[in-house]
Structures are given as C-alpha cells and as structure tokens.
Amino acid sequence: MFTDSHCHLVSHRFDPEDIPAVIARARAAGVTRLVTLATSLDDVQAHLAIASDPAVHACIGIHPCDVHRAPDDAIDRLAPLAADPRVCAIGETGLDAFHPAPEGWTLAEFRERQRTFLHRHFELAAASGLNVVIHTRDREGHTTLEDALTLYRAYHDRTRAVFHCFVAPWEMARRVLDLGGLVSFGGVCTFKNARSVQETVRQCPPGSFLLETDSPYLAPEPHRGQRNEPAYTAHTAAFIARLRGESLEQLAEHTETTAHQFFRFCRHSHANPEPIGKETTS
User: Fold this and answer.
1) Strands 87-96 and 161-163
2) Contact 82, 128 (CB under 8 A)
3) Residue 195 included in any domain
4) What CATH number does residue 53 fall under?
5) How far apart, in whole angstroms, are the C-alpha atoms of residue 1 and residue 265?
6) Is 260 within 8 Å of 249 (Cβ atoms)?
7) Structural domain total, the chain
8) Of 10, 170, 196, 211, which residue is the least packed, with the fewest Cβ within 10 Å?
9) DSSP 38-55
10) Inside any domain, residue 275
C-alpha cells in the first residue's frame, strides 16, 4: 500500500538480526516496499545484502557528513554498482550546514568538499540513468537547500532529484517542483510545531511528493522520541491524508505511482516483490 522511500536499515540502531522482524512489521502496517540508503563506502554492501529481499531496494551514495572520510575516488568506486538490480537511485548525497566541520578541516573546506561530492553524485546519476536523493540541513534558514537547488539546476534535464525530509515552506518546494524534482515528507510533518511544513504538505499536488521515515531517526507522532522504523510510515501517511482531506487509498495511489516513477522499480528484478520478510535460501 505504501513505500517507505527513505530509511537506513544498516544504522547501528538496528540489530542486523532484527531486520527481518523490522521488515515484517512494515508489511503488517501496510508498508510493502522499502528503500534503504547507504551513507558511506563502508556500508554499501550491507545495504545491498538487505536489498536481496525483493521488497527492499538500495540507494548508493556518500552522505554529506561523511565526505571527509571518503576517498577522492569514492564515486568512481560506486559507479560499477549503479547497474546492480538492487540499486534504485543514487544517494544519500547533499549539503549539510547543521553539523560543524570535522577535526582538521576548516568549515570552508568541508562545505566545498560537500559541493564537489554532490556534483559527482549528479554526474553518476546522469551517466547511469538513475535519479538522486538529496539531503539538506541548516541550523537556521535554508542556505543548503538554496545551494543544492543551484547545483540541481545544471543537471535537472538529465536526472531527477528528491529532496528528502523536506521541512521548508511551500515557496521552496515549488522551486524544486519547477525543476522537475520531488519532495519527501516524514515524521517531522506530524509534529505540533511543524506548521510551515504542514502547509507545504497541503499545497503539494498529487505526484509531487513521496513518503518516508528516515528511520531510525525522526519518528512521527505518537512515537516521537523513540527509534523510528519503516512501519511508522503508516502514521505519517494517516496524518498527511487527514491534512490534505484525502482518503488513505487516494494518498497511497498517487504516492505509490510517484515512487515507482522516480525509483523505476519496474527496471529491476524486484518489480513484483514476494511477501516482505520472507526467508530466502541460497
């Protein structure tokens, strides 16, 4: 019924042995497809292993907060994996001004390396025929979103981007959509003080946004403060449907169509998933 378009199943907050149960709880909640995103070269293979479950797909990329640890040729190393049938997009990549520069780096050096890596992710996406998942985060304002939009403008005719965990006003969302991109909403929109993003949710037309958890982070109400997981997509979906005056069925129909178009699930062997969480034999 729903796709969790952004989760991190290799996070240290998930016990690897618990992943089948996490996936099974998602299915029981009506979340029948999951997209798990790598954040570094070190965790790519673990994401691909989980994506051997036909209902799980993987994205490959270097998170902006990990670019200082990545080798200069990190994107070249990722490139051969773009053709793997378990891979459905490039990312998570982007720009982050929330966290300070790591030890040994000036802020200017760290920000420039993030921009360089975002360019390279766009280039990989364009070359491989995949789309891109973008992270932006600021302590205040929307500088990283502005900068990422500027970079995206140079590539928007060759690849499509989704700006995940979107919390900016409608005017910013409209600029993403004008470039052919998407936004994605997670648990933050259910928070009582999230009035601005709730207005964005109301105004986004069908076909312009996805649902996500960003689990294990940012659990929606009524689980705020707890470890998030893909099953909680259902809570966010119910909140968004009420906010928009839609039925769950209507919301599921257009967000699922959008997810299939963006991630191009039909290109992969996972197009018709078996029951989620089903054990496989080698």
Assistant:
1) unpaired
2) yes
3) yes
4) 3.20.20.140
5) 15
6) no
7) 1
8) 196
9) --SGGGHHHHHHHTTSTT
10) no
Tell me whether the omega of the peptide bond preceding residue 222 falls within 30 degrees of 0, making it cis.
Answer: yes
Gap between the Cα atoms of 164 and 161, Å rounded: 9
Torsion of CA 271, 274, 276, 279, to 10 degrees: -130
- Cβ-in-10-Å burial (0-12, 13-18, 19+) of 269 comes to exposed
Per-residue model confidence as pLDDT tens digits over 166-204: 999 999 999 999 999 999 999 999 999 999 999 999 999
Cβ-Cβ contacts under 8 Å for 162 (sequence gap 6 or more): 5, 131, 132, 133, 134, 181, 182, 183, 184, 210, 262
CB distance 91 to 61 below 8 Å: yes
Domain that holds residue 172: 2-267
Residue 40 domain-assigned?
Answer: yes
User: Three-state DSSP class for 269?
Assistant: coil
**CA quadruple 35, 36, 37, 42: dihedral sign:** negative
Give the model confidence (pLDDT) of 40-95 as tens digits.
999 999 999 999 999 999 999 999 999 999 999 999 999 999 999 999 999 999 99
